Amino acid sequence: MPHGVIEQIPRFLTWYNAAFLLRAASFTLALSAVGSVVGILAGGAIAVLRRTRGWALAPLRGLGTLYVELFRRIPFLVTLLLVFYATQLGGYDMPLFAIGAIAVSLISTAYLAEIVRAGLASVHPNQWHSAAVANFSFMQTLRLVVIPQAWSVVLPPAFGFFIMFLKDTALASQVGVVELTYAGKTLNNRGFAPVLTFGAVLLLYFAMSYPLTLLGRRLEVLVARPRHR
Amino acid sequence: MPDLAIADLHAAYAGRTVLGGVSLNVASGDVVGMIGPSGSGKSTLLRVLVGLLPPVSGLVTLDGATVDYRRKADVRALRDRLAIVFQQYNLFQNMTALENVMVAPVRIRGRPRTEVRAEAIDLLSRVGLSERMNAYPDQLSGGQQQRVAIARALALKPEILLLDEVTSALDPELVGDVLDVIRGLAAAGMTMLIVSHEMSFIRDVASRVVMMADGSIVEEGRPAEFFREPQTERARAFVGRIRWHRD
Ligand SMILES: Nc1ncnc2c1ncn2[C@@H]1O[C@H](COP(=O)(O)OP(=O)(O)O)[C@@H](O)[C@H]1O
Ligand SMILES: [Mg+2]
Q1: Cα–Cα distance, B195 to B197 (Å, whole number)
Q2: CATH: 3.40.50.970, 3.40.50.10240, 1.10.3720.10, 3.90.640.10. Which one for A2-228?
Q3: Residue A172 alpha carbon to ligand 2 centre in Å
Q4: A188 and which of A90, A92, A197, B232 could share a cystine (Cβ 3.0–4.6 Å)?
């Protein structure tokens, strides 16, 4: 261990530093949670919208497609800065966390819309035909037949995305949100050894993301083959 | 009395005409056997009839009432009276055999669950699947799946049953059980339009045979006469190639 690190430990392990890091971790977690929940709901809605037929919804379908293709191609940082300056220009005095939350939601919605779209597309068209000839409505077909079969295709990439996303929220620090990575840097600037500060950050990221992995695995088992339940 | 009348029906895929004026009547109690080379438009005709493919032109009437396939209400009403079984059985993969049979009557028609359940169990026993009611489609053989699909169609109490080559995807040893189920339906007076390559079966069970070729009906007659003395050149050529393997 580098010189002085051992001596720093008592000074590092204070309630103050712990609270600072945990608070930052809670922002990271909150940003990811908002992004994931909004993403699965709004992204799911866009994916479903894109499966509709008929002229009436064609403009909305076009918008949905445009949105998904656009926001998956813009770097996260750019989206974040766009939201930041848009709210500034609009003259809104928005909390930094809200700005971060909007940005992550915009991005996760686009990614999850694509993940759900692929899941819906994985269900064989003959399932739609069988439902149609028995007078299932579009929504009934989705709810009773298609979505139950799509879960097993949606979950692995969705959880992969959530885990990646948890790390990517670090970029929110660019507009001043004190999330976990930023907090680590701050402590580092206060003179603590990188081993300690970023070691603590690493542990906290792991503590948040590993349970997510386990949850994902559990859900996958639950939905994969309903017959083996 | 379900009387299905099809007059000068045209249909196309992406502008390519596949049905070029089909006219056919299926009267109550009829068992119409439809034969013809692959690609002649038999499946397409059934898909048009159940509203999966909008016709280009032509007239379909049910009990004299015209079905307008552009109107959702017409298609819904039609689908309450017509049921179809596909070649690839198309069971809902996320449901057991029993759930497959029950789902539409309960969830779509809103009938009481206990009543539907009793009927579904009865139907599945009639097609010989009382032991496998809680199996998922991928745990069943093709023949078993196809019999579940027939039970599922019957659970909707259709007035007319459309069957599209329901044995073509099956291993030969599984065909018999499925055909027996259909024979039973014919004996019970079910009105059916059966597309099949099982010629001896069609000859035995159909009250009328129609032959399709290139998107239209080229010949039609009583099974005994049709198979003994086809009138047209195309039917003669087609019948001549038949191997009567199950005789
Ligand atoms: N989904 C489809 N898209 C385009 N062409 C199709 C489609 N389904 C069938 N066809 C074409 O339509 C014609 C009639 O097919 P089909 O009705 O399936 O014949 P059959 O059931 O008598 O074998 C064939 O030439 C076939 O290639
Ligand atoms: Mg066919």
Answers
A1: 7
A2: 1.10.3720.10
A3: 57
A4: A197
